[in-house]
Amino acid sequence: MRRNWAARLRHVTIDGLRAVVLENERLRVTVVPGKGGDVVEFLHKPTDTDFVWLSPQGLRDPRDHLQGAADDVAQFIDHYEGGWQEIFPSGGAPSEYRGARLAQHGEVSGLPWEYDVVADSEQEVAVRLRVRTRRLPYRLEKTFRLRSGTAALEIEGRATNDADLPLHAMWGQHIVYGAPFLRPGARIRLPEGVQVIPHETAINPPGRRVRAGGPWRWPLVPADGGGESDLSVVQEPGSPSDIVYLTGFDEGWYEILTDVGMRVEWDATLLPYLWMWQELGASTGYPWWGRAYTVGLEPFSSMPTDGLGAAVANGTALVLEPHETKVLRLRAEVLP
User: Fold this and answer.
1) First-to-last C-alpha distance (Å) of the chain
2) Cα 42 from Cα 175, distance rounded (Å)
3) Helix-strand-coil percent breakdown of the chain, rounded to 5?
4) Which DSSP state fits 128?
5) CA neighbor of 224 nearest in space, from 245, 194, 244
6) DSSP of 16-54, one letter per residue?
7) Of 195, 187, 192, 281, nearest to 233 (Cα)?
8) What is the per-residue pLDDT across 67-123, written as a single tens digit (0 to 9) for each?
């Protein structure tokens, strides 16, 4: 029975793409199975606050892309609406793995996923999404669950190696925050003892926020031009672009706070890294053109943002044994 109260589901079309809306008294979460299973809305209804960043170019159907030069980075960027992507089996830059060329951020974020409803009652709603990668022999599932009366989205992901031999992978949650939630002075909280590993080189030629080297201790780190930088405070528009890798989590969680906040919890034994991407308007060339003001806090299995080949080389890539399934549980909750 269709409901307009308690936990409920809607099947909709957004910009020509299949989508499903999970909603209760406190949250509205919109998922797009037709494009990667992306979360394109995470709205806290009491404060009318959407947490995810929305790219100026909006949501685009990858199947409508008929022109443009061949480019393994543009394949992701041309259809990047912001939001929250599943990243698998490679993270970051294009890479090659055992003869398979993998584009920016791997395969699944650009594929259409199948989905079905697994719970639909006043107490809870849940949908399960499924996809197979095309260049490596993997199956992925993820179940989104929203319970009545809570401000928390629960996710269970399952990655299965369908081959008769062990394979490597990178697995991550590309969660990025934007307006109206994100603003200068927003604070980021992490467990005690977290270490900061800077990316080897600057991601934007004019400069970076964190000095190369390390690892450094969170949150006060050496700044690129001297002095210290407090990574726990979101900076003003135009501040340097950067990406660092946070690790040393006894428990996988973070909080990002303004007048309201978000707490994300995950299994840090499976995803021991948190990528912190800061694109605050300093990048004035392709692809941001100075229009991005966003911070990504992205639980990941591996590092750096150089693709699966680099993660295999440095020993951080996941290994899935023949026909093994790895299970990831994650919870994202709005804080009062």
Assistant:
1) 31
2) 11
3) 5, 45, 50
4) E
5) 244
6) TEEEEEEE-SSEEEEEETTTTTEEEEEEEGGGTEE-B-B
7) 187
8) 666 688 888 888 889 999 999 999 999 999 999 999 999 999 989 999 999 999 999
DSSP 3-state assignment of 276?
A: strand
% of the chain beyond a pLDDT of 90: 88
Q: Which two tokens stand for residue 290?
A: 């100075």
* DSSP reduced 3-state for 165: coil
Indicate the DSSP class of residue 3.
-
What are the tokens at 151?
């401000």
Are 230 and 219 contacting, i.e. CB atoms less than 8 angstroms apart? yes
Within the chain, where are the H helices? 74-77, 308-314
Ramachandran assignment for 37, one of left (phi > 0), alpha (psi -120 to 50 degrees), beta (any other): left
Q: Which residues contact 118 (CB under 8 A, 6 or more apart)?
A: 126, 127, 128, 143
Cβ(250)–Cβ(191) below 8 Å: yes
Residues 6+ apart with CB under 8 A from 67: none
Check residue 75 and give left, alpha or beta (phi > 0: left; psi -120 to 50: alpha). alpha
Reduced to 3 states (helix: H, G, I; strand: E, B; else coil), residue 279 is strand
Cα–Cα distance for residue pair 143/298, rounded to 1 Å: 19
- Strand order, beta sheet including 152-161: 114-120, 124-132, 138-147, 152-161, 325-335, 261-266, 252-257, 187-189
Binned at pLDDT 50, 70 and 90, residue 205 comes out as confident
Phi-psi region of 230 (alpha: psi -120 to 50; beta: other; left: phi over 0): beta
pLDDT in tens, 20-35: 999 999 999 999 999 9
Which pLDDT value is given to residue 230? 98
Query: Is pTM beyond 0.90 here?
Result: yes
**d(Cα 244, Cα 197) in Å, to the nearest integer?**
6
Q: What is the pLDDT of residues 155-202, one digit of tens each?
A: 999 999 999 999 999 999 999 999 999 999 999 999 999 999 999 999
